[in-house]
Amino acid sequence: MSIVSGISRFFGGAGASPNGSGFNYAAQLARTTPAELPPAALYHLLRGAYETNGWYDDLRAAGFRVDGAAMPAIKPIRTVVAPVVNFYGAKTFPEPLALVTENEGIREPIKQLWQWSNWRQNRRTFARMLALYGEVYLRCVASAESGRVHLEILEPQYVTDFSDDQRGYLTMLRIDIPQSEEQTDGSRRAYTHVELWEVAHDGYPSGRYRLWHADGEASGRAVRDLGTPREDATLVDFGIDWLPFTRAEFQSIGGKRGIGAVQLALESIIEADLSATNLHATLFQDLEGAWVLKATGNDANGRDLPPPVVQGAAASATGTGTLADGSVQVGKRSFWRLGGGQELQSVIPNIDYAAALAVLQDHDAYLERVMPELAYARVSQLSGPELSGRAIRYLLTPAVDRVAEVRANALAALMQANKQALTLGIINGAFESGIGTYESGDFEHDFEEQDVIPLSEVEIAEGEMSSASAFKSWTEAGLPMAEALKRAGYTETEAIDVLTLAAQDVEAASGEAVPEAAR
Q1: Which of 136, 262, 372, 481 could pair with 398 as two cysteines, CB 3.0-4.6 Å apart?
Q2: How far apart are CA 261 and CA 373, in angstroms?
Q3: Beta carbons within 8 Å of 509's beta carbon, 6+ residues apart
């Protein structure tokens, strides 16, 4: 199936709808999830929606049809895809991205891995792709020659097939990347770089890796039709029994492919663009108005004069002079030379533009409800003593909740990729073997929690003062310290730290250990 036909299905060119003739669940599912679509078609669609400029023109030029009708002339003047995706680029990963681990030996190797991978910059690219496509892959690459290991981002349109186990670990992965190379005669040869990775299975107990450079487009061709591979090795040859890839999902509803931040709202986004385009076109056309040339008076017999005959305009050679329609062009202005009994009138229709604008604004409000990330730019501009950072965070609760889910998925993928890189780094001499092994759990780590929308220093200080005041009130009321700390808003970890320090102070002053029950 071609990309164009695949996209057409997504918009309903061949999909059934639940009106009258029965509800076709499979067809409706194909309209809202990529499971029934060629993945590359969906990802090209989403990439075009993100880049915006000329997107609809390109679709129209390609003969794209919407629900069987010709693609309307739409301008992407209300497209919200880029703002939503960029929001996740800025907020998905904590800032700073700080490791938490009991094995201090892996801290510096992971920092070195990130430096070799340019992760400080690439993590934002990773987050944008995750939000746009709904899934993205990290590939771990090691080289004994360079003595380095790094992470590469693999866009999902190049992963044409995969399978995983119940833990989410990949067991098979196929990659198809279109390429071209210059021949000795100066021509260019188009080919597809194909990789197939498989863990151990019947027939290949050591796992298998194969590479082809297949002529032309190969993404739809079976492996048996690709010919002899250029490279053929086992996973054991690389010193591993797992695939050096990690898959991250933005959101899952149970399908094979992930769901991105804008995918389920594409039709609403396009409707907003269409509404805005129509409103603007109507506005500018009607403001220009229309000119009516009418005959006034009566002929000798008292009958109404017939309408004047108007010829098509033709510009004069000099740009200034009388045109064929009887007007006179002076500079950029036109003046009409009318005969007797003729009158030129300007007609501007009486259209309620405010009502039409209200419809569009209501549609914008709807988009903000289904994509709460859009509220970030609006709410973050609010200021004043009555609207603190805490209040802004409260207003952005739906967006923050969405980021929390995505952040957990992204960090889980990064942790798994870090562990793979540490293992490959040891195998290829990039890291010392003394840092431990994956199997023994030495590579376990996490990241410090950071607020999606951090508080200012003033608000932090105010919060600490408020907590301290509340703690004092509760202890004076006779509550144990642990309970007072809990009611004052301290986390369990913070409460333990406070109680430990307090116990140490008492012990130092009295010389006697404080009973655990008194803490």
Answers
A1: 372
A2: 9
A3: none
Q: Does residue 510 lie within any of the structural domains?
A: yes
> How many CA atoms lie less than 13 Å away from 465 in the CB half-sphere?
6
Q: What is the rounded CA–CA span in Å between residue 217 and residue 226? A: 11
Which H/E stretch holds residue 505? Answer: helix 492-510
Range of the domain at 317: 290-347
Tell how strand 342-347 and strand 333-336 pair up: unpaired
Structural domain ending residue among the three candidates 279, 313, 347: 347
SS3 331: coil
Residue 409 falls inside a structural domain = no
CA atoms within 13 A on the CB side of 364: 16
**Distance of alpha carbon 434 from its chain centroid, rounded?**
40
Across 381-411, b (16+ Cβ under 10 Å) vs e yields eeeeeeebbeebbebbeebbebbeebbebbb
The 10 Å CB-count burial string (b at 16+, else e) for 466-491 is ebeebbeebeeeebebeebbbebebe
The pTM of the full predicted model, rounded to 2 decimals, is 0.73
Query: Can you read off the two tokens belonging to residue 237?
Result: 């040859």
pLDDT in tens, 30-41: 444 433 446 788
Contacts of 22 by beta carbon, 8 Å cutoff, 6+ apart: 16
Render pLDDT for 288-337 as a digit per residue (tens, 0 to 9). 556 677 777 777 777 777 766 655 555 544 455 555 556 666 666 677 66
